[in-house]
């Protein structure tokens, strides 16, 4: 019996040491990625990958914030979304505020393969250094069982095409030119929902799990060819999809979040995007608790 308790004591000590090392590693990584301005790559490094950035879902929320942040750092912007009037307004606003060039492509990403010919045509002749695969949707604006939404066949097809097919096809279109120049950055916007199944948000969480898996695998495949692929998995950002919750310590504005997220490029291949969300992620990991349903 004494030997048994001794063995359990050793196991407990090893477990405690492992958890302590993990906490120290996480804290050190957070300091390196988010709190050391000296290690950030800077706008010249970003522009060296190519003159243009392409942002999907670029007229609202996180996509809009990425478009403005990348333009602020000197990149020309291709905005892709389905609403033509919003595209035209944002293009004019970016040119006015940041003095960079813009191009717009009107596309509804709930469509299938047939929509991507227009995208390829619209991108011809551009040296694209950054691709932001941001466009996304949820099946319903309220929490519902997966197959009890209105017209579930159409809604589920739409979310698969928008959240998953768009990432694959936009990467297919743009990655080859990055490989040929041996430089380029692909940012795939996922969500903390990728980490666990989420009843009542089953399809959304599953599509984000796909984005993470696909993104991390492609990052490994092409890192030796000069292409950086980053997965970004935020917690709650105050956007239309999340219901515009009040911002504060835990909830970020899209603009503040995107500014911090762009600073992590070249430092982290998988990030929550900002220090606040990294702390939340670390707290949930330490507690071994799945997050509640989050839309970003």
TrEMBL record:
GO terms for biological process: steroid biosynthetic process. It is an enzyme of class 1 (oxidoreductase). Pfam families: adh_short (PF00106). Its EC number is 1.1.1.62. Its main location: endoplasmic reticulum. Keywords: Coiled coil, Lipid biosynthesis, Lipid metabolism, NADP, Oxidoreductase, Steroid biosynthesis. This is 17beta-estradiol 17-dehydrogenase. The gene is LOC101340917.
């Amino acid at each position: 019996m004494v030997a048994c308790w001794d063995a359990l004591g050793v196991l407990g000590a090893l477990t405690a040491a492992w958890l302590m090392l993990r906490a120290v590693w996480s804290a050190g990584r957070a300091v390196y990625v988010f709190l050391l301005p000296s290690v950030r790559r800077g706008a010249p490094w970003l522009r060296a990958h190519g003159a243009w950035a392409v942002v999907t879902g670029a007229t609202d929320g996180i996509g809009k914030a990425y478009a403005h942040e990348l333009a602020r750092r000197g990149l020309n912007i291709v905005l892709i979304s389905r609403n033509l009037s919003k595209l035209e307004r944002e293009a004019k606003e970016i040119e006015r505020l940041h003095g960079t060039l813009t191009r717009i492509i009107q596309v509804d990403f709930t469509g299938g393969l047939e929509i991507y010919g227009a995208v390829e045509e619209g991108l011809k002749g551009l040296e694209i250094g950054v691709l932001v695969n941001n466009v996304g949707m949820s099946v319903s604006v309220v929490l519902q069982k997966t197959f009890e939404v209105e017209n579930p066949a159409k809604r589920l097809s739409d979310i698969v095409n928008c959240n998953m097919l768009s990432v694959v096809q936009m990467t297919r279109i743009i990655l080859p030119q990055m490989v040929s120049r041996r430089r380029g950055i692909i940012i795939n916007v996922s969500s903390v929902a990728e980490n666990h199944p989420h009843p009542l948000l089953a399809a959304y969480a599953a599509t984000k799990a796909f984005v993470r898996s696909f993104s991390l695998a492609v990052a490994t495949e092409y890192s030796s060819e000069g292409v950086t692929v980053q997965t970004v998995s935020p917690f709650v950002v105050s956007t239309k999809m999340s219901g515009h919750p009040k911002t504060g310590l835990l909830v970020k504005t899209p603009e503040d979040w995107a500014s911090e997220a762009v600073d992590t490029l070249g430092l982290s291949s998988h990030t929550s995007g900002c220090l606040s969300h990294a702390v939340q992620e670390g707290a949930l990991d330490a507690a071994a608790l799945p997050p509640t349903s989050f839309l970003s």
